[in-house]
Design a protein that fits this description.
- The complex is a heterodimer of chains A (319) and B (339).
- Chain A is α/β, with parallel strands linked by helices and 319 residues long.
- Chain A has 2 domains: 239 residues, Nucleoside phosphorylase domain (Rossmann fold), CATH 3.40.50.1580; 76 residues, no CATH class.
- Helix content of chain A is 41%, strand content 17%.
- Chain A is built from 10 helices and 10 strands.
- By secondary structure, chain B is an alpha/beta fold.
- Chain B is 35% helix and 22% strand.
- Chain B has an 8-stranded mixed sheet. A 5-stranded mixed sheet of chain B has the order 2-1-3-8-6. In chain B, strands 15-17-16 form a 3-stranded antiparallel sheet.
- In chain B, strand 1, helix 1 and strand 2 form a beta-alpha-beta unit.
- In chain B, helix 10 packs parallel to helix 11 and helix 11 runs parallel beside helix 14.
- Classes of the chains: A alpha/beta (319), B alpha/beta (339).
- At the A-B interface, helix 6, helix 8 and helix 10 of A face strand 2 and helix 3 of B.
- Bound molecules: iron/sulfur cluster.
- The site of iron/sulfur cluster has 9 residues of chain B, from strand 7.
Chain lengths: 319, 339
Amino acid sequence: MVYIFCALYPEAAPWISAFRLKKVPEQTKFQTFTDGKEVCLVITGIGKVAAATAVGSICTANGVDKSDVLVNIGICAKLSEGTEPKEQGKAPGEERGSIYLCNKLLDEAAGKTFFPDVLVKHPFPEGSLLTGDHIYLKSDGKKDIVAELYDMEAAGIYQAGAYFFGPEQMVFLKVVSDFGVEAGEPESGNSKGEESHAKESGKEKPQHDLHKEKITALLEQHKKEIITFLKNLKEAMEEDVPEKKEAAAEKEYMEKLYIDLCCSETMRHSLKQLYQYAKKAGLPFEEKIGKLYEQGKLPCMVRREGTKRIEELKEWTLE
Amino acid sequence: MKSLRNGLWNRRFSHIYVEEKIAEHALVKEWLSRLPGAEVIKIGHYKDVFSRAKQSYLRQHRSQSLILAAKEGRLVYDGAPVCQDFGNKHFYYTSCVMNCIYDCEYCYLKGMYPTANIVVFVNYENIFSEIDRLLEEHEVYLCISYDSDLLALEHLTGLVKRFEEFASKREKLTIEVRTKCASAALWEHLEPAFQMIYAFSLSPEEVIREFEHGTPSLKERTACIRALIDRGFRVRLCFDPMIYVKDYPAVYQRMLNTVYEMLPLEKVFDVSVGSFRISKDYLKHMRRGNPDSAITQFPYENENGVCHYPKRLMADMEQFLTDDLQKHIEPEKIFLWKD
Ligand code: SF4
């Protein structure tokens, strides 16, 4: 499963349409959309705590395995306007709409830094991202010393995600929407302030439609590369994970064997290990077990007998 | 397990993490210049990246990152009990590099470290000072390539050359460099020095292909050793770890035949023999990280926390090799690992 976490609906809209996701009506805390098999998108709301809570709740409910990926897609502020532009050919200030893959996340309040692995090829420039607890004000000063980008969720998503995913399974894609807000400036800012406040206060403040559309449009322009990258990422994560069907059949086979050998926890370990060894060493384990059944040596009636059979199997692997 | 589509993964060292405090170090700049186009990410301490939870050794090995750091605390350690000391009383090891570009399924590094990323420490000069302090007290036998194959990274770091230059001016120092590296171009820049012993691990071709991913073939290794012996390098042959495979006598005999054919054994410094053994804790970690391996899943015997092949098999394998070697090399030159 690809889990996509976006703070706002306008950030999620391109993916809901691209992957033809349907709303999950049972999910009442966080708006959730899915195609029922490959993609699950969650709208977390604004801020680290909301985002982390959404990750924790969805991943606990759905379960996560080694082939799953977590993707946080959204808008951010660029901290270093006026300094060297990261993207070639773009003048400072022209970076609105530029996309970054974040290789370093800083949690401003906690003073902690996190590093998602970047193992799979991608076409995006990379950058570091500072996650703060309020909208970035230009007057905040020199945040560009510690990072290039600023948002309000990523570090929270990483920290919650780390309970379920390895660092190579998590990806943070951010599109620059602004360069910080002047103090007292009413609208926009890292484009999220109003909606956040509306949600917190429980009021549905009317949103500026154009504003929402702008956010969606900023992300929409990178849709093609993002979708290709997510496909590659998923494919890479699936390489060393056995097909679910195959794994389930194997599990069923072994479970029967554990019972038929009256296995204790330790015996289960040894037997599983022997099975895996035989498989890798090219030994006909299942044929051998079949013979034991034919000879009436399986199933065992007591654990002592099971222990003896496992010892015999060990010796067989060395014959 | 090999990647089905290598094209999906970033190339090795596409990402380099550099500790802030050494970002301006001349050696860091030199190394970075050898890896143009890499993404350089500043970090506070190497453990911020190295020691993260839930890292996947298998996946990271397909796209290893490089971490450049300064080593702190003790730099030279007493030799570990599971390692062969070759009769040397003052036996130490140091690691300027942690982890390896090769990918041997039996490698204990997979059990010891939480990551496949490679750390290179820049402050080798501090290690030199510590060695000099030890040399004031006694002779020193130092292994510098336990926690990596240092020579496999020589084109990037040049660290073995630096150790060679350092050691060649110190009579009481002997340095062992363990390797499987057979790159002719690389050896060109090293000189034979009496203080340096190059210890080549040799395995049957079948074992190399199955379990020592990314390493040179037996033919390449023996050809390289031959050239080095001819140039006057001191070479040790390590048939350690011996790996159990079906028909191991035939498989290992073929390897020995290649060795006898290619190498003037009378010119070899010495030979070590030992079957695979590993600490139980490392093995546990390796089983979790790579469950799909005949090495990790073998039903080993656990004796006081060290896992090894069943005693009879272990004795048979080692005996087989030493018996045959003794026909070609003086028994005093053969070191059999004993716990
Ligand atoms: S060459 Fe040595 S250090 Fe490298 S992976 Fe193999 S055993 Fe480990």
